[in-house]
Amino acid sequence: MYIYDKFDQTIVRERVAAFRDQVARRLAGELDEDHFRPLRLMNGLYLQLHAYMLRVAIPYGTLSSAQLRRLAYIARKYDRGYGHFTTRQNIQYNWIKLEEAPDILSDLADVQMHGIQTSGNCIRNVTADHFSGVAGDEIDDPRVTSEILRQWSTFHPEFSFLPRKFKIAVTGAAHDRAAIKFHDIGIQVVRGPDGEVGYAIYAGGGMGRTPVVAPLIRGYLPKAELLSYVEAILRVYNRYGRRDNIYKARIKILVREIGAAEFTRQVEEEWKLIRTTGVNLPAAEEARIRRFFAPPPYDTIAEPVASLTQAKAASPAFARWIETNVHTHKVPGYAIVTISLKPPGGIPGDASAEQMEAIADLADRYSFAEIRVSHIQNLILPNVKQADLFAIWQALGKIGFADANAGLIGDIIACPGLDYCALANARSIPISQAISERFADPARSAEIGPLQIKISGCINACGHHHAGHIGILGVDRAGEELYQITLGGAADQTAEIGALIGPGFKSADAVDAIERIVDTYLKLRQPGEEFLVAYRRLGQAPFKEAAYGRA
Amino acid sequence: MAVLNLAPGETPVARPDPWVLLADGEAPTVGAHVIVPFARFKVEHNELLAKAAAVGVAIGGADVVEELAPWVARLQLVLLQFGVFKDGRLFTSARLLRERFGFRGDLRATGDFIPDQAVFLLRSGVTSLEVGEAFPVETLARVVRAYSVRYQRALDPQPVIIDQRLQGNGA
């Protein structure tokens, strides 16, 4: 993974000092809250319902074991002993004191971490496929591109006061595990006409109150011209994105209002003027960054691995976990492990300091000291020997994270909702807990198969409900929490926005409605047909009727 | 109001300033340094350029700097008026004036901005700040020195990190 040199380290160190100065000025009254807000947001510090929340960037979802231990330390020292991994490959601490925030940032800087641009109207933490570098279907490791973008976007002199927040996601494979089409810019590594590596560029996607699947604005961009092209997009957006209404200020609205063709024309015109002005990264610097993502020293291992075969035969529960939570690695004899942070009845994405430390230990012992954070709010051990899987599964069982539900109905994305968030209209966590408990039986959830439920507590859609196969949106109706259900959303390369089935359900009824939808799917599916495929074939009608009890 | 110079590595200090922003309808005095809003300049540029010793134009975030391009060689000052400090359009306007249209005069920010934005302004090509009496000048002197290194090429002359790395100075 990328290791800071003295320049990267200097920037985060100087950032800590600058933020300490800003906090002191705020506490002394020199800065009013209105002018302090963007400064603290650019350090990831939010004012929530009950306390300050600090959002720490985990750039493109890659963490070392030492960094994960430091996150555990911060949870214990400054918070209530836990943290919350988010859909944007960040971790949030919910009980932070403003006066201590500079010390936390200093502790993070010790391990090359920060909260820079995890909030505010700037270019946010760049996210990427959580299987980067280990997935067999990858053309190029998207973390190289992501790190280039991280450095370019950090304290960008021109793009630090954008109309609204700006999110970039990168995938290195045709199979999109990073939901790139729901980002302001989505970047997909592709091969060009002559087989060389470059990018397809999508722009203007997003969720929120106006969900949009990003249109493709350039089918092929040479790899070396990434930064000038992205800069051209940002410049057009910074100049012409709306600033009169925060609900219309995202780039997706600009793209929609002038049309993707006209937006593309403006970007291309700007790009022509800047592509040779020194914005692009020199090849030697790209090569320097790339070296950090070289594969670790894998052993040569023949498959099948006998001990794995035997362990699966001996333990059906282990075999089920292998089926759901272990993914094919590009190197024979190795595997990718998804650690589900979704125990039935738990809070999706939450991990205690002890759990984080235990996972850091597992990474040290079994995965070249590396961990990934997925936008699905799970942790990943990316480089595990198949022969070690049984030991890892047993160790995860001791910390309550051995559930065999990755990608299944219990693997729910949920925003913090009204339990924490000042923007929320309804709680997300209790409904998530109720659903995961209802479908806690591993055999039943395996029978249902791949099914993504995503829950947001308000229209801002931090819980990605628009992209859920089953999406749930909490709304407030005259003081009562109601839950609207959408069906048919998808976050992958077949990205689609879910369609609302009708009026919202009371919280007590919502889980029953979900169960009736699932039962309808089980009844109507063809052999081997996954939920989303069945939904696309059958349309909304049978599910809607079932949800409202009319079937 | 005071005008502070803004230059890389220097403490911003107040300097004498000859410029006056003309009120609506106010005629330029012969030999004066006058600033007018862009809308007025579009109509009266011939008269203004003939009469005044030096002409500056005030632009806001919504003004399109391409329209100012034909005149930049004859302007001594462009005033960037921040209605709200969050209006990031003016950072792009500043860069375009310098990099694309070759403006060489004084590029001055005024209005609602905070000391912490000064580094971004400087890096976008701004060379002076007009500030009110309550503006914390001591804070400004401190925060313009907050960062010793930078990733992006911009209008400030200090070497960027990439160049230092290419020279082998990163380890």
What keyword list fits this structure?
heterodimer, A: 551 residues, alpha+beta, Sulfite Reductase Hemoprotein, domain 2, Sulfite Reductase Hemoprotein, domain 1, 4 domains, six-stranded mixed sheet, five-stranded antiparallel sheet, 18 helices, 21 strands, globular, B: 171 residues, alpha/beta, TIM Barrel, eight-stranded mixed sheet, 5 helices, 8 strands
Descriptive notes:
Chain A is an alpha+beta fold and 551 residues long. Chain A has helices at 6-28, 33-41, 65-78, 101-109, 142-153, 226-240, 251-258, 260-274, 283-291, 306-314, 316-325, 353-366, 389-398, 429-438, 442-448, 507-524, 531-538, 541-547; strands spanning 45-47, 52-57, 62-64, 82-85, 90-96, 127-128, 168-171, 185-191, 197-203, 216-222, 326-328, 334-339, 350-352, 370-373, 379-385, 413-414, 453-456, 470-477, 480-487, 499-500, 505-506. Chain A has four domains: 6-109, Sulfite Reductase Hemoprotein, domain 2 (Alpha-Beta Complex); 135-290, Sulfite Reductase Hemoprotein, domain 1 (2-Layer Sandwich); 306-398, Sulfite Reductase Hemoprotein, domain 2, CATH 3.90.480; 413-547, Sulfite Reductase Hemoprotein, domain 1, CATH 3.30.413.10. In chain A, 38% of the residues lie in helices and 18% in strands. In chain A, helix 1 runs antiparallel to helix 4 (101-109), helix 3 (65-78) runs antiparallel to helix 12 (353-366) and helix 7 (251-258) packs across helix 8. Chain B has a single domain (2-166), classed as TIM Barrel, CATH 3.20.20. Chain B has helices spanning 38-51, 89-100, 118-123, 137-143, 161-166; strands spanning 2-5, 14-15, 19-21, 33-37, 54-59, 77-82, 106-111, 128-131. Chain B has an eight-stranded mixed beta sheet with strand order 2-1-8-7-6-5-4-3. The chains are: A alpha+beta (551), B alpha/beta (171).
